[in-house]
Specification:
The complex is a heterotrimer of chains A (about 325), B (about 280) and C (about 500). Chain A is mostly helical. The longest helix of chain A has about 35 residues. In chain C, helix 11 packs parallel to helix 13 and helix 12 crosses helix 23. Classes of the chains: A mainly alpha (about 325), B mainly alpha (about 280), C alpha+beta (about 500).
């Protein structure tokens, strides 16, 4: 726990104290303790519970509810479960496409906004709006916007001579509709972060590059992009984490359909856990998903974490 | 630096941004329009752009779905959980930022608690609160199923990791020299924290507060499993209009507007602070 | 420094909220529950104001009833208020939307929270709930209150679905038995009739087979520039509305077509029947011969969207459809000039999904006696009359067949005589193995994805049904048990009755 980092305190020399606020201090542990107590309890309890459930035969609709110990059977079943692997593929497809679109569009938009001549503040402010909306409420409204019979999107497409698209009628448009919704809600997040990062970039290297007569593209590739990399890494991890657990728009718009075209892992787990009440399978699959997300985001965040640690020590 | 007159590129940029902005604002605009349409103007093809506005949908939303009750519930839960999260996370975050407790690993561990698929978290919580609700202490504190206390606890747990991460960079940005000199002036560590650090970190704390309220307000999944009627929140109330007689798009839009507008207004007023907060502390990290 | 001022303002604000919330949270427990009970005035103009009966002082008892959110529940809520006035027992109505009703009720019963005294179910859930011992038997209560309940007035087709293994668990309070809706103004238009006769060689009329329904769907599909009933068509008009989104309705609809064609979900030996040729023929008919003439939205539609398609004048007829929706369907007459809504049995008449939402007492309830009493009240002829007057689809035959009353209240009761006709036939001819399988609830919840995959062409019909059959077998752990003790199977030679048009309540 938090107190594992006790170090013997250096003898105090009150009048010369550059290292007064040193690393590994009991005071830090005290500060962290209340929050850690809450987090550890409420993180470990569900985790332990899930492991326990995954090891038994659990069907809440049966008379016994929690049955015999079955070892790793649930995990083995999860790994050979077609619906689960198809849900993973769907989730990955949504994740990759949505994330790519959001980052490209978001960064592009941030570059535009950064050098915008008029109404910069207002534009930036308005881009906040999708972010502030409750995803569930917004997705319900989008269900109406997409409607093939009464929806306004097909009417708009019709005005420019396109469509109509039967948004929820076949796999690809249905996937697209989920992705477009996510892009609408979260591109502003990417934009605003990137914009903040762009505005915090140091001036000097850019001025030097201008003196050297470097082309705009070169400046972007050689200077801007590398400086933005840590921010982009963080965006990828945070959005990736959220997209891997995508649930609200699926439940509000497509219910996983048509067929199982938009059934994401979270939605599938909901069905297994809260419709079939097979908590053993739901827990086993949830644990597998958790494992993957932790490993992947751990790798993604490692450089950042190291930087954090270094900063703290420096400070 | 921008003293020069505008170039054609400025105009191209402006037009592009405006076009994208219109696309992003459109769904909200349409939601607002729909909320003022009468039944006959909503399900028509092609959609109607001009219509006679009516307030009936709002009347319906407040009469049928008892929105006042949901709003009060949501406000209560958001305020109480935020009031718990902010002091706890401020202390922890300062601990991590200045004393590097756990050397980054602990910070990462905190983040992992948000990675569990929600379904695997909600059922254990369901069981805990069912048991707690049956005890005297639990029922006094409102910690049962369909009780506000339960949601306060849940949102506290969700928001803690986020709040700690968010405040981290704000604490890091405070120059150590200030703290050191305060110590030299004879302040204890607690006094340094209270009288020097916290006031300096005020903007960060403010941002975190805003986000905690926003997340609590917008949360749906846990509220939908852990509450029934007594502690129903506003996002659940919006779903009330998906009914036996079909989706009542008018009242549903009105409800969505009621649900979304307070957060939008808050976001607009406090936008400068939010933009800073969105960076999750990473921009300077 | 300007941050500082801002921060102070914000903490001030937060403080106010906290204080306000703190006060309110201290009081909420009391009014919060009551607010859900407050009788909400139903918007329908047909609701007759209930005269305030002499109120009995509250007796401190409260029962909680979980049911579907929406229009009908609004009426039920006002009935609950009447009950409170009569007995002093408060009724807390928890409204849950249909899509998540099963999940939420089951979770609370499985978790033994005792949250609900009265639960509401769709007939296919009963086996699971009764099997898990989540429901309290009503046998004694019903025996004691025979006279007041008058259960003989409720169609046996509906009553049988409230018992499991011979034990009665529920009382029906509202039926969603299926028939079909069509636009009689179009079906009776002389030009359309002549054109149909010329094209298909038989008369345009209420369909008696699903093939006829498919012909009509094809016939009525019009594009901009065509004419419909002599008027030029300006926007796409469709022949039929189908509930083919990934919702439970898609499975009901498939069975409505499959059952009259001699197919069933589960064969007599307990093996899945969905892969049979007859079942696949039925699906072929819907997805290949009707769906192409339905609005594109049908692929994501539940009954609610089809109701909108119908009452906005987008379609000429529905497929097999829930008759409790009459009050919604008839709105087409106010929204489309010259339109008239008519109701008829779907091909196969009584071989239909003639189910109810039933209510029973949860085994964990702490107020069994009061809950039973309230149930009895809701099922009683008096309460059902109020329910029906406001548009509720009552299971009581005496009300359904009360023609004088029905004629006076066409907007809400217009489907009643047809409904009674269908129920009467269902009692003689309807039987399905499916609802007697203890795992029916799971199968029912699992079905939509496969039917939706077949309808949208994501998978071929036989692939989808094979996958569904595999799931059925795995849920049952082999061939399914069919717990149909005490259920008399209908005579296979019984004839489908001819629908008597005088049962339709026509537009005055």
């Amino acid at each position: 726990m938090a107190t594992s980092t006790h170090a013997p305190e250096l003898p105090r020399k009150p009048r010369r104290l550059p290292r007064l606020l040193a690393d590994h201090d009991w005071f830090g542990s005290i500060l962290v303790a209340p929050a850690m107590l809450v987090i550890v309890f409420f993180a470990l309890f569900p985790l332990g519970y899930a492991i326990y459930l995954a090891g038994h035969y659990v069907d809440l609709t049966s008379i016994n509810q929690i049955g015999d110990y079955v070892g790793l059977t649930s995990f083995r079943e999860a790994l050979t479960n077609d619906a689960f692997s198809s849900a993973i593929r769907t989730t990955l497809a949504i994740l990759v496409i949505a994330l790519t679109t959001e980052v490209l569009l978001g960064v592009g938009l941030a570059m535009l906004l950064n050098r915008l001549k008029w109404f910069k503040g207002i534009c930036r402010a308005l881009f906040l709006l999708p972010l502030a909306c409750a995803p569930e409420a917004a997705a319900l409204i989008w269900r109406y916007l997409y409607d093939s019979d009464f929806g306004v999107y097909n009417a708009l497409l019709g005005m420019i001579g396109l469509g109509p698209i039967n948004w929820f009628g076949s796999s690809l448009p249905a996937l697209a509709s989920i992705i477009i919704f996510d892009v609408w809600q979260w591109t502003p997040f990417v934009t605003l972060i990137t914009l903040a990062a762009l505005q915090a970039l140091p001036r000097e290297p850019f001025e030097a590059a201008e003196l050297d007569g470097a082309s705009r593209f070169t400046v972007f590739r050689r200077l801007t992009l590398p400086l933005l990399t840590p921010v982009l890494a963080l965006i990828l991890v945070l959005r990736g984490m959220d997209l891997a657990r995508l649930y609200d728009p699926i439940s509000a718009m497509t219910k996983g359909g048509p067929g199982s075209a938009t059934e994401t892992v979270s939605y599938y787990l909901y069905r297994v856990g809260l419709e079939d009440f097979r908590l053993d399978q739901a827990s086993a699959m949830a644990l597998l998903v958790l494992f993957v997300i932790v490993v992947v985001s751990g790798l993604g965040l490692r450089p950042l974490m190291r930087a954090q640690g270094a900063r703290a020590r420096r400070g | 630096m921008r003293a020069r007159a505008f170039t054609p590129w400025d105009i191209v940029r402006q037009v592009l941004v405006m076009a994208i902005l219109v696309a992003f604002m459109f769904p909200l605009f349409w939601m607002l329009m729909t909320s003022f349409k009468s039944y006959g103007d909503i399900l028509v093809s092609p959609p109607r752009w001009v219509f006679e506005p009516t307030l009936n949908n709002y009347v319906d939303a407040f009469q049928k779905a008892d929105f006042a009750h949901y709003i009060l519930n949501t406000l209560t839960v958001a305020a109480l959980s935020t009031a718990i999260v902010i002091p706890t996370s401020a202390l922890a975050s300062y601990g991590f930022a200045r004393y590097n407790v756990g050397g980054g690993n602990l910070m990462f561990f905190i983040l992992t608690t948000r990675m569990m698929p929600p379904i695997a978290v909600v059922l254990p919580f369901f069981m805990i609160f069912k048991t707690l609700g049956a005890t005297d202490i639990g029922s006094t504190l409102g910690l049962g199923l369909d009780q506000l206390g339960t949601l306060v606890v849940c949102y506290t747990i969700f928001n803690l990791p986020f709040a700690i991460w968010l405040m981290h960079s704000f604490f890091q940005d405070i120059p150590t020299e200030i703290e050191d000199s305060a110590r030299l002036d004879g302040y204890s560590r607690w006094q340094v924290l209270r009288k020097v650090v916290l006031p300096l970190a005020a903007p960060g704390i403010a941002v975190t507060t805003i986000f905690c309220i926003l997340f609590s307000w917008n949360e749906f999944f846990f509220a939908s499993i852990l509450t029934r009627s007594n502690a129903k929140t506003i996002t659940m109330g919006v779903g009330d209009f998906w009914t036996q007689q079909g989706v009542l798009w008018g009242p549903l839009s009105a409800a969505a507007v009621v649900c979304v507008v307070p957060m939008i207004v808050m976001a607009l007023i406090l936008q400068r602070y939010i933009v800073r907060g969105l960076t999750f502390g990473a921009v300077r990290g | 420094m300007r941050h500082k001022g801002f921060y102070r303002k914000l903490t001030g604000l937060l403080g106010v909220i906290v204080i306000a919330a703190g006060c309110s949270s201290a009081v909420t427990p009391v009014p919060a529950t009551s607010s859900a009970v407050t009788p909400v005035p139903a918007t329908s103009s047909a609701v007759t104001p209930v005269p305030a009966t002499s109120a009995v002082p509250l007796n401190g008892k409260t029962i909680t009833w979980a049911t579907i959110s929406g229009f009908y529940t609004d009426i039920a809520t006002s009935l609950a208020a009447d009950y409170t006035a009569k007995t002093g027992t408060k009724v807390n109505v928890v409204q849950i939307d249909l899509q998540s009703m099963y999940d939420k009720e089951t979770l609370d019963m499985a978790g033994a929270t005792g949250a609900y005294d009265i639960v509401t179910w769709n007939l296919s859930w009963l086996g699971q709930w009764a099997g898990a011992k989540w429901l309290a038997p009503l046998t004694d209560y019903v025996a004691k209150n025979k006279d007041a309940l008058q259960l003989g007035d409720i169609s046996p087709a509906l009553m049988q679905t409230d018992s499991w293994q011979g034990v009665q668990y529920g009382l029906p309070y509202y039926t969603f038995t299926q028939g079909m809706f069509y636009r009689c103004d179009l079906f009776e238009n002389a030009t359309e009739k002549a054109n149909f006769q010329a094209k298909y060689g038989y008369a345009l009329d209420i369909p008696t087979t699903y093939q006829q329904m498919a012909d009509q769907a094809q016939f009525f599909r019009r594009k901009p520039g065509d004419t419909l009933a002599g008027k030029p068509v300006t926007k796409d008009f469709y022949g039929i509305g189908l509930m083919d989104g990934r919702v439970n309705n898609i499975f009901d609809e498939a069975n409505m077509v499959a059952w009259p064609m001699g197919a069933d979900v589960i064969n007599d030996d307990g093996t899945p029947g969905v892969t049979s040729q007859k079942y696949e023929d039925a699906l072929n008919l819907i997805y290949k011969k009707m769906l192409p003439y339905a609005p594109p939205g049908s692929l994501s539609a539940g009954y609610d969207f089809v109701a909108s398609q119908f009452n906005t004048g987008l379609i000429a007829e529905t497929g097999p459809f829930y008759l409790d929706q009459w009050a919604n369907m008839v709105k087409v007459e106010t929204q489309v000039p010259g339109a008239e809504a008519c109701v008829a049995p779907h091909p196969g008449t009584g071989e239909t999904w003639s189910g109810t939402f039933s209510m029973g007492v949860e085994a964990n309830s702490k107020n069994v006696a009061d809950a039973e009493d309230f149930l009895g009240y809701l099922t009683s002829p008096d309460a059902q009359m109020k329910f029906a007057l406001a548009g509720g689809s009552t299971p009581r035959t005496s009300i359904l067949t009360n023609r004088t009353l029905v004629d006076q209240h066409r907007d809400t009761m217009g489907a009643f005589p047809t409904l009674a006709f269908i129920l009467n036939d269902a009692q003689n001819r309807w039987y399905t193995n499916f609802i007697w399988v203890p795992q029916a609830a799971k199968i029912y919840n699992d079905a939509p994805q496969y039917f939706s995959a077949a309808a949208s062409g994501q998978e071929s019909i036989s692939d989808a049904m094979n996958a569904f059959a595999k799931d059925i077998t795995s849920y049952c752990g082999g061939p399914c048990t069919i717990d149909n003790q005490g259920i008399t199977k209908p005579d296979p030679n019984a004839k489908e009755p001819t629908f008597d048009r005088s049962l339709q309540v026509r537009k005055p």
